[in-house]
UniProtKB/TrEMBL annotation:
HAMAP family: G6P_isomerase (MF_00473). GO terms for molecular function: carbohydrate derivative binding; glucose-6-phosphate isomerase activity; monosaccharide binding. The gene is pgi. SUPFAM superfamilies: SIS domain. This is Glucose-6-phosphate isomerase. The active site is at residues 359, 390, 518. GO terms for biological process: gluconeogenesis; glucose 6-phosphate metabolic process; glycolytic process. Its EC number is 5.3.1.9.
Amino acid sequence: MPHYHNPLDASQLPAWQQLQQQRLNMQDFRMTEAFAADAQRFQRFSLNHDGMLLDFSKNLLDDTTLDLLMQLAEQSQLQPAIQALFNGEPVNASEQRPALHTALRRPIGDSLVVDGEDLIPLIHDVLNNMTELVNRIHNGLWRGYSEKPITDIVNIGIGGSFLGPQLVSEALLPFAQQGVHCHFLANIDGSEFHELSNSLNAETTLFIVSSKSFSTLETLKNAQAARSWYLAQGGSEASIHRHFIAVSSNIEAAVEFGIAAENILPIWDWVGGRYSLWSAIGLPIALYIGMSNFKELLAGAWSMDQHFQNAPFAENMPVILAMLGIWYSDFWQAQSHAILPYDHYLRNFTQHLQQLDMESNGKHVRQDGSALSYPSGSVIWGGVGCNGQHAYHQLLHQGTLLVPADFIVPVVSHNQIADHHQWLYANCLSQSQALMQGKSLEQAAQELRDKGLPEDEVARLAPHKAIPGNRPSNTLVLERICPRRLGALIALYEHKVFVQSVVWGTNAFDQWGVELGKVLGEDVYQRLTGQASLNGADASTQGLINFFRNRHRG
Ligand code: F6P
């Protein structure tokens, strides 16, 4: 039986127990001292892959710890688990299916036979269909009901059918093709629909209903609203196929909704929603940046896939990031992890990672259903720098919580304005430096004395100005934000998440917790609209329903 059906209890592995001792040994470890003692620390604790540099030297890390973390990865059977992932074994045990987002990145001519079928030709057939569709729209051959070419694409989808495509489209704005605008409609909040539809012309708008399941409430309600809006604007039923296409694995439901069968691009149940931007769910990306750039995105991810499969663990970027994350959450009680991209175009990266990481690793049992006795996924949060420096970085510097951070920054800017990029890059580096160095009480006191303050004022102010330091971070430097590097960056975090799930023994590819909210949402809606009695709901929910109903009465 494959190991993931019967995962190991990580806390019983020898390396885990040695790491517990190592944590105690590291109590007085100071990164600044480690740098002073080792001129090669940066070289030894940094990695390069395909135009990407990972500096992990500013961590609570020494050789023994790194070695133990790599042993933990080995003892967790990571290598066979990676092979199982890439080979299409059912790594998603609760749903008994593989998670084959990596297959979507494989080059043509490759082969991956799962259950007797070679998936690569299927995948490339869909890529060809996407190419044809993109070309027709870009060349003005796809016409709306009044024979005008399409100018605006609206992607209707939520979760993985929104966050990945939105992140990539916005991140690759400098690669956008002329003439096609992409919009995203995700939330059921009518205000989002209202604001967007006000800016659109129905004659030249194409809606992509993007839903793997074609059963997601928010998406279906928005798709219905879009259809009503399109008809109210003068569009005809007969021309609906010119304005609505779908991406789904539930072809039947999409057809029933009214999408023409030839307008439905398939995805497969072996692609998880939060891993689906590489599939036809990425159609808005392809429409925005063109198909050759979309293929570059896939190529970048595939290059990271190969690195992940082949590099020894100690030189493997996803493995290093994952094991450092485990070091902090399971041995240092860190409960959150900050993602801090210093690039305007990556401003939605944290949001995408929130779904990728928290929906994947927010689990409390192992694949076999046994309870975890140690923490699993962290809270992922953060946002674009420098903005965060003037908001939440204060807590990173002087708060009582340990928050490891990933800084992400390109060397080359798409928009060199005076010396802004030098300043941006300098700020990124100086933040990780400040987190590491901090400022001792003595230093703070001396600075105050140097300013001529009396001793009682020095004693009063110095504790406020002292900064603990020794706070860990990784820095990822990309050559520049381009399709290939972005593909590699996203794939890097996908694999980081997978490695952690293997060590914890959890399933990174299901999300049963989300389902309860969906079921209760339906129940509350029935009560709110008077279709079901309030009896049986808790008093808080009843009170809140009544408040709403009183306002809407009469
Ligand atoms: O919110 C749960 C979820 O199932 C996500 O995993 C998924 O990305 C999202 O809903 C959207 O699902 P679908 O593409 O099926 O509409």
